Amino acid sequence: MERKKQNPTAEDETQIISRRIQRISLHITPIPRPLHDHDNNLGLLPCATREKLEVETEKLSVYMRGKYRDMQEKIYEYFNARPELQTPVEISKDEHRELCWRQMYGLIRETGIRPLKYVVEEPAKYFAITEAVGAVDISLGIKLGVQYSLWGGSVMNLGTKKHKDKYSEKIDSLEYPGCFAMTELHHGSNVQGIQTVATFDPITDEFTINTPNDGAIKWWIGNAAVHGKFASVFAKLMLPTHDAKGVSDMGVHAFIVPLRHFKTHQALPGIEIHDCGHKVGLNGVDNGALRFTSVRIPRDNLLNRFGDVTRDGKYTSSLPTINKRFAATLGELVGGRVGLGYSSVGVLKIASTIAIRYSLLRQQFGPPKQPEISILDYQSQQHKLMPMLATTYAFHFATVNLLKIYSQMKRTHDEQLVGEVHALSAGIKAYVTSYTAKSLSVCREACGGHGYAAVNRFGTLRNDHDIFQTFEGDNTVLLQQVAADLLKQYKEKFQGGTLSVTWNYLRESMNTYLSQPNPVTSRWEGVEHLRDPKFQLDAFRYRTSRLLQSAAVRLRKHSKTLGGFGAWNRCLNHLLTLAESHIESVILEKFIEAVENCPDASSRAALKLVCDLYALHRIWNDIGTYRNVDYVAPNKAKAIHKLTDHLSFQVRNIAKELVDAFDLPDHVTRAPIAMQSEAYAQYTQQVGF
Ligand SMILES: Cc1cc2nc3c(=O)[nH]c(=O)nc-3n(C[C@H](O)[C@H](O)[C@H](O)COP(=O)(O)OP(=O)(O)OC[C@H]3O[C@@H](n4cnc5c(N)ncnc54)[C@H](O)[C@@H]3O)c2cc1C
């Protein structure tokens, strides 16, 4: 509010009048305003202007935090208080494996945390635990994931009451450390191609597990090389028949197989275990290879939720076909994927925090005869890091949403949700982990030579995270599941079926977006228009709709000559782009919702800025696609570019607050170059000064 003076002078009067005229003129200025209104700001040297939003870090942080922060803090405190359990920079494979085991064992036994209980009852809490332990050491996060999500999760989700009663408590307390043995030397992505067999013997009421050839050796099995006592082994269930074949293949099922003796820890008879050796990263996890030779297990060890064998050797299942049973079995395992996407965002938060804090601290060059400037004031550095920071926020809200619908699915078993979570978890896991993997290199490079010192963490983060792109489903394979699902929905739309919630936008978009782009809106270039969530979301969805429609047309055309498989392969890159485009639409939609739902005005303004940067940067990256069909006129494209630059700069001005709001404890970012207050002191000490 302006405070009025007692006796205004003539000069004051003139100022007041001119201000009034200005205000009135604002009312009659047509909105959206053209971008060049802002040119003065855009033209300024970044280091010379300090246009800055006020952000209350604590409030933003509270909004981001979620309800399991206490649990995460308990984990951080546990490790903070035990320096002997922190992973040193230099450590051998064997020491790292032992340390990782002690970290997990100590955490479970001393804090009373029981992750398996949460896997089943409160998945979001379980994922908060894995995020926190992954921040301590990614190997520990994965080791814990193998024990609870893979081994424990397979027993709880594929087994029935008898299995839960017998195993759950002992898995939770780590009395029964175990593995998840699905992948074989010759088959990873193609799980239906695995060759290990479990043949029922009606005389002894047992299954015999066999590895028929070297290609069927279970490979890469986490926890197998050193610590595992059990494994859930995936094998083809064979039933004896009286025909010429002698057996009938009922498809892939999971079986609980004891691996090692309880007291001596020796491999049990018929089980051969080898070490997969030193890896590119994750050396705290003991991956091993398993061969089975006539290993006998009781019939009860079949995890029989989706298919069972009676005492007299009859197969029973509520699901009629091998394919349906296989889909149901794998469908129960999507939790691992959800968790991996979520943990990957945790890694991205750590890396971007280190790189941004360092870039604020580090100064190189500057205007003549003036102090050097922060490297984050270089446009190029902003372009490397600010859209990445915006994307980290976008991923945060997208994975939180995925956790929400996953938890809902576990609670309700709603069939539509099952399908939706399956495709969405595949897409988000693939998209997020690929992005994080690339960003880790960008962060390292953004920190120059110091980024290469192991103590600054990028090396381990990059090496440990890299495999996130492959395990729990190779990203290229997962994206195809998203594309296949989109095409299925597209087909159903034309047959009048219902679309799942996440896909709902396609209903309208197919009709509106596939008509010719609107020649009027394609020329709108005002800031308000470009920052309007409707414009941004429309642009994302328009791209997805076009890709979907053209993919369907191309597939139909090619399948006439190449068959279904050949046509799919001919269009594969197109289909991957389609899947990514759809996932980007979902991510933006969830970000926009998160901005709108934020209760604190200053945090909402900051999030809106970050969300706009995310959206416009993506649109600008794909500007060729939009220009090709005149969805965006040439001047509008320029305006998008300018505004993206401008937003990037504005985000730079609140970058410190934005990374602080991730609320990562210092020992998690643990890179001396990120310790702003002590500058390089800790770093120089570390090398002996
Ligand atoms: C460190 C580590 C830990 C692991 N832990 C476990 C574990 O505990 N338990 C377990 O069971 N497994 C585990 N795995 C195995 C992991 O799940 C598999 O490696 C993964 O599923 C990929 O299978 P693959 O290695 O056979 O790759 P492949 O399927 O052979 O893929 C190789 C390449 O071919 C491409 N490709 C394959 N199929 C297609 C297609 N249809 N279209 C286009 N491209 C295609 C892929 O994109 C990829 O680039 C682990 C692996 C590692 C490295």
UniProtKB/TrEMBL annotation:
<keyword id="KW-0809">Transit peptide</keyword>
<keyword id="KW-0274">FAD</keyword>
<keyword id="KW-0576">Peroxisome</keyword>
<feature type="domain" description="Acyl-CoA oxidase/dehydrogenase middle">
    <location>
        <begin position="179"/>
        <end position="295"/>
    </location>
</feature>
<dbReference type="Pfam" id="PF22924">
    <property type="entry name" value="ACOX_C_alpha1"/>
</dbReference>
<dbReference type="InterPro" id="IPR009100">
    <property type="entry name" value="AcylCoA_DH/oxidase_NM_dom_sf"/>
</dbReference>
<dbReference type="GO" id="GO:0071949">
    <property type="term" value="F:FAD binding"/>
</dbReference>
<dbReference type="GO" id="GO:0005504">
    <property type="term" value="F:fatty acid binding"/>
</dbReference>
<dbReference type="GO" id="GO:0033540">
    <property type="term" value="P:fatty acid beta-oxidation using acyl-CoA oxidase"/>
</dbReference>
<dbReference type="InterPro" id="IPR002655">
    <property type="entry name" value="Acyl-CoA_oxidase_C"/>
</dbReference>
<dbReference type="GO" id="GO:0055088">
    <property type="term" value="P:lipid homeostasis"/>
</dbReference>
<dbReference type="InterPro" id="IPR012258">
    <property type="entry name" value="Acyl-CoA_oxidase"/>
</dbReference>
<dbReference type="GO" id="GO:0003997">
    <property type="term" value="F:acyl-CoA oxidase activity"/>
</dbReference>
<feature type="binding site">
    <location>
        <position position="222"/>
    </location>
    <ligand>
        <name>FAD</name>
    </ligand>
</feature>
<dbReference type="InterPro" id="IPR055060">
    <property type="entry name" value="ACOX_C_alpha1"/>
</dbReference>
<feature type="binding site">
    <location>
        <position position="183"/>
    </location>
    <ligand>
        <name>FAD</name>
    </ligand>
</feature>
<dbReference type="InterPro" id="IPR046373">
    <property type="entry name" value="Acyl-CoA_Oxase/DH_mid-dom_sf"/>
</dbReference>
<dbReference type="Pfam" id="PF01756">
    <property type="entry name" value="ACOX"/>
</dbReference>
<keyword id="KW-0276">Fatty acid metabolism</keyword>
<keyword id="KW-0443">Lipid metabolism</keyword>
<feature type="domain" description="Acyl-CoA oxidase C-terminal">
    <location>
        <begin position="532"/>
        <end position="676"/>
    </location>
</feature>
<dbReference type="InterPro" id="IPR006091">
    <property type="entry name" value="Acyl-CoA_Oxase/DH_mid-dom"/>
</dbReference>
<dbReference type="InterPro" id="IPR036250">
    <property type="entry name" value="AcylCo_DH-like_C"/>
</dbReference>
<feature type="active site" description="Proton acceptor">
    <location>
        <position position="472"/>
    </location>
</feature>
<dbReference type="Pfam" id="PF02770">
    <property type="entry name" value="Acyl-CoA_dh_M"/>
</dbReference>
<keyword id="KW-0285">Flavoprotein</keyword>
<comment type="similarity">
    <text>Belongs to the acyl-CoA oxidase family.</text>
</comment>
<keyword id="KW-0560">Oxidoreductase</keyword>
<feature type="domain" description="Acyl-CoA oxidase C-alpha1">
    <location>
        <begin position="331"/>
        <end position="486"/>
    </location>
</feature>
<dbReference type="GO" id="GO:0005777">
    <property type="term" value="C:peroxisome"/>
</dbReference>
<protein>
    <recommendedName>
        <fullName>Acyl-coenzyme A oxidase</fullName>
    </recommendedName>
</protein>
